[in-house]
């Protein structure tokens, strides 16, 4: 049984204990959220981690409801960098992340909600938001860097976002960019958690493997508990090796920015994201 798992630092509190205690009938397929989404789409995987947007769009998966990848404010590793003021992005060229689905659609939702206005400056329904999005050249299939000259802005996620953030902050370029943490941006507008990634299994697989589904649901939660307690020092060490960030920076990332719980508020936030994606024609 192959289980898809996101190969980013943000998942290490689940991944490391999972690998140490993994049942003998399981193996992990490690990849980016975008590549895992495509593997589910092709029918190559039946269960594991995936982008929240893919989960909403597909509709054929059942959540493992004991955890998710979310934030209740700044998330630290889902960022939008712009060389222009955000109110002046009409006609801009923006690179989306090839590693993500949720973040690419989230930036569209946030731009449309905040800057999709009529000529008199008042909100005028979803039409003007869609018009704004249609005016922007969103480029897919490339993981751009904030300094790439071909783009006015870029979405960057995961380990690359941590690295880009550090590079920009520690250089003379920091005042040349508008930097928005998309978890913070979402929370400021809606006061709900932003769910970026989930764990789920294909409903047809669940129907045929109900006991295994329940066992995996518990195992995922137990892995997370270990990853944030007895195995936490290993998580910090591996995260430091991958990112070169300090132990204090990583501790803040895992304990103050990332939120792994899945509460009724998270379900409400996920549903609001679904509704907004529908509003701006970002879900089929």
Overview of this structure, please?
The chain is of the alpha/beta class. The chain has 2 domains: 2-72 and 193-279, D-Maltodextrin-Binding Protein, domain 2, CATH 3.40.190; 78-190, D-Maltodextrin-Binding Protein, domain 2, CATH 3.40.190.10. The protein has 12 helices and 10 strands. Strands 7-6-8-5-9 form a 5-stranded mixed β-sheet. Helix 1 (12-21) packs across helix 9. The longest helix has 18 residues, at 210-227. The radius of gyration is 19 Å and the shape is globular. The two termini are 30 Å apart.
CATH architecture of the largest domain: 3-Layer(aba) Sandwich
What would the average pLDDT be, to the nearest integer? 93
Strand content: 15-25%
Please provide the ordered H/E string of secondary-structure elements: EHEHEHEEEHHEEHEHEHHHHH
Q: Main beta sheet, described?
A: 5 strands, mixed
CATH fold title of the largest domain: D-Maltodextrin-Binding Protein, domain 2
Low-confidence stretches: 118-124
**Helix count, per DSSP?**
12
What class do helices, strands and sheet pairing give? alpha/beta
Outline: globular
CATH superfamily of the largest domain: Periplasmic binding protein-like II
Q: Which CATH class of the largest domain is shown?
A: Alpha Beta
Q: How are strands sequenced across the largest beta sheet?
A: 7-6-8-5-9
**Total discrete domains:** 2
Computed over alpha carbons, the radius of gyration is: 19 Å
- The helix fraction, in percent, is 40-55%
Q: How many strands appear in the DSSP assignment?
A: 10
Straight-line distance between termini? 30 Å
């Amino acid at each position: 049984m192959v289980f898809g798992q996101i190969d980013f630092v943000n998942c290490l509190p689940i991944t490391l204990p999972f690998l140490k205690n993994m049942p003998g009938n399981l193996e992990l397929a490690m990849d980016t959220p975008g590549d895992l989404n495509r593997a589910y789409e092709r029918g190559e995987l039946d269960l594991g981690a995936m982008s929240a947007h893919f989960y909403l769009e597909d509709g054929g998966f059942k959540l493992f409801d004991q955890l998710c990848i979310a934030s209740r404010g700044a998330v630290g590793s889902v960022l939008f960098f712009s060389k222009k003021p955000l109110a002046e992005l009409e006609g801009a060229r923006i690179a989306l992340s090839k590693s993500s689905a949720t973040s690419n659609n989230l930036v569209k939702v946030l731009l449309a909600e905040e800057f999709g206005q009529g000529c008199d400056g008042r909100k005028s329904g979803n039409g003007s938001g869609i018009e704004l999005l249609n005016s922007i050249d969103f480029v897919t299939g490339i993981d751009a860097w904030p300094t790439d000259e071909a783009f006015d802005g870029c979405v960057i996620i995961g380990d690359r976002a941590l690295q880009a953030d550090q590079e920009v902050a520690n250089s003379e370029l920091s005042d040349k960019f508008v930097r928005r943490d998309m978890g913070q941006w979402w929370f400021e507008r809606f006061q709900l958690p932003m769910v970026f990634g989930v764990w789920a299994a294909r409903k047809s697989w669940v129907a045929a493997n109900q006991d295994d589904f329940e066992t995996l649901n518990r195992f995922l939660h137990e892995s997370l508990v270990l990853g944030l307690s007895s195995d936490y020092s290993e998580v910090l060490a591996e995260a430091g090796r991958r990112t070169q960030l300090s132990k204090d920076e990583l501790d803040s990332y895992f304990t103050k920015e990332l939120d792994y719980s899945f509460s009724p508020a998270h379900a409400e936030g996920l549903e609001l994201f679904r509704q907004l994606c529908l509003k701006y024609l970002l879900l089929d």
